[in-house]
Amino acid sequence: MKAPVFDYHRASSVQDALAALADGRGDAKAMAGGCSLGPMLNLRLARPARVVDLRHVPELRRVEETEDRLVIGALWTHAEIEDGALPDITNGFLPSVAHGIAYRAVRNRGTIGGSVAHADPAADWITTLLTLDARLLIHAPDGERQASIDTFMLGGYSTELGDDELLSGFILPKLSGRGRWAYHKICRKTGEFAKAIGAVLHDPDRGLVRVVCGAIERTPILLEETSAALGRSSPEAAADLAPVLKGVLKDEIDRRLADHDAVFRQMHHTAVSRALAELGSK
Amino acid sequence: MNRVSVTIAVNGQPFTASIEPRQHLADFLRETVGLTGTHLGCEQGVCGACTVEIDGRPQRSCIAFAAACDGSSVRTVEGFDDDPTMQELREAFSTHHGLQCGFCTPGMLITSRDIVRRCGETDERTIREELSGNLCRCTGYMGIVAAVGSVCRGKAPQVKAPPAATPVRAAAVHLPEPAMAATAPRSAARPSAAPAPAAAAFGASAATTAGDGAGWTAIDQSITVAATPDAVWEALGDVRRVASCLPGAEVETLEGEALTGRMSVRFGPIKARFAGEGTVRRDEPARTGRVTGAGRDSGSGSQAAGEVVYRVAAAERPDSTTVAVTIRYRLTGTLAQFSRGALVQDFVRRMAETFAANLSASLAPGADGIPPQAVKPAEMNVLAMLVSVVAGRIRRLFAGR
Amino acid sequence: MSHTGIGARVRRKEDARHLIGRGRFVGDIRMPGLRDVAFLRSTYAHARIVAITRPAGSEGSVYTVDDLAGLSPIVTRSTIPGYKESTHWPLASGKVRFVGEPVVMAVAASRAEAEDLCDAVQVEFDPLPVIASSEAGRAPDAPRVHEEWPDNLFLESGFDSGVDEVARTAPVKVTREYRTARQCMHPMEGKGVLAYWDYQASQLVVVTSTQVPHMIRTGLAECLGLDQSRIRVAPPDVGGGFGYKCVLQPEEVLIAWLALTRKTPFRWVEDRREHLTAGANTRQHQYRVTAYADERGRLLGLDAEVMVDTGAYSVWPFTACLEPSQIAGNLPGPYDFQAYRCKTYTVATNKPAFTPYRGVARTGVCFAMELTIDAIARAVGREPVDVRAENLVTAGQMPFTNVTRKHFDSGDYPASLQRAREMIGMEAVRARQGSGEPDGRHIGLGFATYTEQSAHGTTVFSSWGLSVIPGYDQASVKITPDGGVEVRAGIHTIGQGLETTLAQVASEILTIPIERITVTLGDTATTPYSTGAYASRGIVMSGGATSKAAQTVAGQVRRIAAHLMKCAPEEVELRDGRIFAGNRSIAFADVGFAWYMRPDLLPTDVDSRGLEATEAYKPAVDSGVFSYATHAAVVAVDPETGMVEILDYVIVEDCGRRVNPMIVEGQAYGGTAQGIGTALFEESPYDDLGQPLASTLLDYLLPGPTELPSIRMDHFETLSPYSAHGVKGVGEGGAIAPPAAIVNAINDALAPLGAELTEVPATPERILAAILAARGRRSAGQENAA
Q: In this protein, which residues make up the domain named FAD-binding PCMH-type (chain A) (predicted)?
C-alpha cells in the first residue's frame, strides 16, 4: 500500500497553484491536508501525475470581515476551527461541528476546504455550510467566482470544480445574537463518517431558518417545507416536535428520500427530528 | 526517477535527504532516518499507530507525505526521553497494563501526551473520546484509559488555544456580493459533463435498481420521445450515436456485431479508463436491442462487465415512443472492494439520468444526433454505465478529513 | 523482598522496550541488500489464469508459480475419514480460488517499487462461476472449488446420541436459525516475514511474525524439501496473533524460498488492505438449531445443523476440520443433557482459507446455544437466568463428562452465573425496565455462560485427525554464574505476556525475583520444542514445563548448596532469593560460582548436567482444563436508530490459579473487546461474485475506546486437579461470550416491540429492520383482527 509515483509541487501562491494545476492538464491534483487524498494515494485508487501542495499558500488562510459576513480561506484546519482560531460568528456552530470530525490527529491536518472539495456526502462541512447558507469562493485562471454549496456539489465526490480551479475560501453569514443552531449526527463510532445528519439553523433576524438533512450519499438537502414550517412556529415549538412540524418533516423526508429503504429514511428522519428537538431546548 | 530534497528536524536534529515525493512521513522516519518506533498499522489514516508530532501537533505520518513536511519539525516516540509527562505515561501504561503486544503503543503514547497537555484532569468519557483515533486490538482500552486518567489527575491544561485570528475589515478588500456574484459554473466547457437534470424532452425518466444474486445489479430506465417508434428504432441502430450520449466513451472499432472501445470515468480523485470489447445485437421483430461488453482498467486491475437491453414501444401519446432500457453490470477488482450502497445508487442514478437526457435530446425531432452536452463522440454505453458504477462503489473513502 | 512468583501482580518484562519505541517487529528490521516483496493478488474469486505477461526487463524480479523450482505446495493431511485434502500452491497454479490469492511475486529495492512492478504485470483471467456462500457450495450442480473433488465439502461430519425420542415427547420445542459474519482478526501488526541465508550457520533464517515458530519450521521444511536442521525460525516481537499467525502462511513459504534460492535477504510485510481482503478468514457459521425442553425449560435435547463457510483451502496444520469438530463438540456448552445430534458441513468456497480465531468456533457455538436458552426461557415464560441456572452442570457433578465426552475438570458454573446476576443487579434492571427510559430507549439484560477448554492436548487433537499433534511442551531453566536465571521455551510471546508469567513460574520455584530472570522464547535455534501459542495453552503447557525444569534445577542447586553448607540436601530451603540451611544462608551466586568457576568446591557426585535442565510437560489428564465464565450485559437500544449502547458489562471468570492477576484481567478485557466487535461491529461482507466489500478500516469497523464499556470483573479460583499449580488457560475466553450476552440483552430490550435478532453483528440497520418488520407484522395482525 504505497503511493504510485507522482511529482510534487509546493505552491507559493494561488496564482502559482493555478498555474501548476493548468500545467498538469487534468492530471494534477490539489492537496491540502491530504487526509482524504493521502489514503487514496496509498491505496493507488488515485494516480495523479502531480500533486500540488496548497499548505503554504498564504491567501488560503485569509480572514476578512464585513458587517454581516466573514470570509475565510480554505486552509484552516478542523482543529483550528475547533480551538476558536477564527472569530466566532456562528454562536459556536463551527467549532462544535469541527470537534466532531474524525479524530484530533486528523483534525490537526485536515482542512475545511479540502473536505468540501473532496465532497464526501457523509462529511460534516458540506451539510454545515448548506445549513448556514454559506457561499464558496473559487479561483479559476480567469479570476475569482462564487458558488453556492448546493449547486457546487453534484453528488458524491463530484463537484463543479474544474481541473484548473481551486476552492479558495468561504463566505459565512454572521449570526445574530438570537441565532440558534443544532446539529445531530448519528455515527456508529466516534470519529466515523455519519450515517445521518440533521442540522437546523434558526436566526429570523438574519432571515435564516434552515433545516438540512445530510449524510444521504448525495448532496445534502435543504428541507424547504420543514424550514418554512419551523419559520412559522417558534423554536420552542420544535422542542417537543409540535405535531404540525412533525408531520411536515415526515412527509418531506419520505418524499425526498423515496428511493432509499425504510431503514435509511428512519435513520435520517430521526437525525433531523432530534436536531429540531435540540434546537428547541437550547 | 523524480526526487526532492527535504530537510526535516527529527527529534531536534535536522535531517536532509533526497526522497521520492511519494514517500510518506512514516516511511521516511522508518526507512530513511532509521527510527522504527513509529509503526504502520493501516496506511489509511485510521488506526493511529503512526501518530507523531508534526510542528507540535499529533498527526498521522502515514498520510502526510515527507515532501509536504519539508521544513517541519517532527517528534517521534523516540524523542521524548527527557519529557516528564511522557515518563509519567510510560510508568502508568506499565502499571495499568495499558499495552500487550506493544504495536499500537508508540502512537497511543503520542496521543495520550497530547490529551494530558490539552485536557488536564478530565472525566473518563472525554479520555475515551480523545483516544478514539488510536486503535488497540489487545487491551480493550481498559488499561490505557486508566493510565491516561491517572496521569491527567491533578493537572491543569498546559496548552492554551491560540487567540482568534484578527480579521481584516472587508472595507479594504474586494468582496463580491452574493446576489450579483452568481457567476455561472463553467460546466459546459468541462470535459467530464455534469449530469443533466432528469427531466427529458418530455416524460419523466424513472430509475430503479435491483441486485439479482449473481453479482449483477440492474437499473431500469425509461424515456419517452416525441418521435414515432419506427424513427426511434431506426435511430437506435446507430450505435455510435447512442453511445455518444455517455460522456467519456470512445469507440475504437465497430465491425458487424463486434465493437471495441474505451471508457474513461472519474470520481473525485479516482480516474479509471476501461478498455474492452463487446457485441451489439438487434431483434427487429421484437424491437429489442442488446449491447454486451466487458472491459478492464489497467491502472487498478479492475474489471467490469455489463449489458444494455432496450425495448422500443409506442407511447400513449400519439407519435411518441417509450424506450425502456435495462442496464446490468457487475464489477470485480480493487474498485469493487468497497461497499456504500446508497452512494453507488446515486452515482448510477445520475449517470443514468445523463444518459437518458442526452438520448432523449438526441432522438428528439430535429436533433442532429449529437447530444448537447457531449464533448466528443462517445460509444460503449455499456461500459460507460459500468464505469460509473465502478467509481460509485468507492465507498466512504476519506472525505471530511 | 517482594514476591514475584505465582499470584503476584507484577509489571510486565515486555513493557519497557515498547514504551520507548524500541520493540523489534519484522517491519523494523533492515539488513544490507534487503529486497522488499509485494504480491499481485487475484482480483477474481474464481478464474482460470490464461496468461501472465511480465514487463520487459523484469527477469529475476517477478515470479510466478512456474518459477518456484523445488517448492512443494501446502497440503494439510488429516486422518478423519471422508476429509478431502486441498493442494495449496503459495502462488496460484492454473486457477485462482479467492480474491487476494497471490498470483505473482515481485521483488525490488523498496515496497513501493515492488508494487510498481506488480502494476506492470498483466494477468489475463478467464472467470469461472463463483461459490460465494455455504449454500452455493452445497447446491447440487455447484461448480467445484477443487475440480478433482466430487463436491465442495471438505468434510461432512457430526455427532449423534439420538434425539428422535425426545423430539417426539418434549413439551417445548424451539427452532432458530443463526448466522455469524465472516471476520478478519486484525492484530495491529499483520503478517510479516524476513528471511536470509546465514552462511556461518549454513542455515536459512526465517524471521517471521508467528505464534508457532517450531511448527513453522516443520512446515517450511516440508514445502522447501530441506532438513529441519538447515532452518532456523526466529520470531521477533509479534504485534498480536489471535490465531491469525498460528498457521503456515503461503507468504512465509515464498519469502523463505526466495532467500534459500537467492541467498540474499527478502522481506514482506502484510498491509491492511491485504489483511482485509486476503485475510477475511474466520467466524462465518450458519446454524439451524432445534431445542427440546420441558415446561420449566429444562433442556431435554438439541438437534443442530451447522455450515462453515470454510474458504478455498485447508490451513496447515490445523486443517479445515478443526472448526466443525469444535462446533459439534462444544455446542452443548456447560449444560447437562443427553440427547444431542449435530450435523456439520465444512463447505469449500471462493474465500480465504478458514483460520482458527481466538475462541475457535466457540464464539459461534456460544451465540447459538445461549440465544437458544433465552428463546426457551421466553417460550416457557421464565427468567432466562433461571432457566440457564437449572441447566448448568453443577459443582457437585465435577469432574463431569458431558454428552460429547468433554471432561469438565473443576469449577462451579452456577455460582458464576449467580455472582454475575448479583453484580449486574438484575432486579434493579428489571425495575428500571418497568419504569421506562426518559429518552425512549429500551433497556435489556443478557447473560451468557460458557466453558473454555484450554490446553487440550494429545487425545483431543488426535481425535481431530491432525497430522501435527501437540504432546509434551518443553522448557529449559538455567542458573547463571552470578545467580541469575535463564528460561527458554519454544512457545512465543505475542502480547499475552509469557516473558513475564514464565519468569513468575520460575520465580515461584526458585524464589529468585523476576528482575533476575531472563526469558527467551520462540527461536528454534535457542529454545526447546513447543508447538506454540494457541488454544489457550501457554501458561498450562509452557508454564508446566518451566515449573518442572525449575524444580529439577532447584534440586541441583540444593545438592551443591548442601555440599557447600555441609548439610543434607533435605535441610536446604530456597527462600526469598537465597538458599537457607537453618539460620545460615548462601546466595544463588555462590552455587553458580561453584559450578562454573570453582569445580574444586563441588561434591564428587555432582549432577553432571550442572545447573540447568530441560523438561517436557503435559498435564496428567490431557483432554484439557476447563476455564469458564459468565458474562452479563445491560444495553440500551434506541428504537429510532437501532443504535446500541452497552451500559454495563460484567464478567465472572474462573481460570484456576492466576499466575499474574493483571495479565489475566488484560486477557479477559482484550478478548471481550474483540467479542464485542463480533457482536456489534465487525463484518467482512462479500458480494455474489466473491468480492470482499471491506478493504479499508472505514468499511470494517473495529471497536474503539468509546464503543467499549468499562468492564467490571470478578474471579473465582478453582484449581484444576490436573495441571501444574492448578492453572487453566485464559487467552481466548473473553472473545467467546460477548455476542451471546449482548444479543440476548438486545433481544430482551426488543421483546416489547416483538422483534428478535439472530445474527451478528447487530448493526443499527439489522436492528431497525427487525423493529420495522415487527411493526409491520403487528399492524398486519391488527388489521386481520379488525
A: 1-177
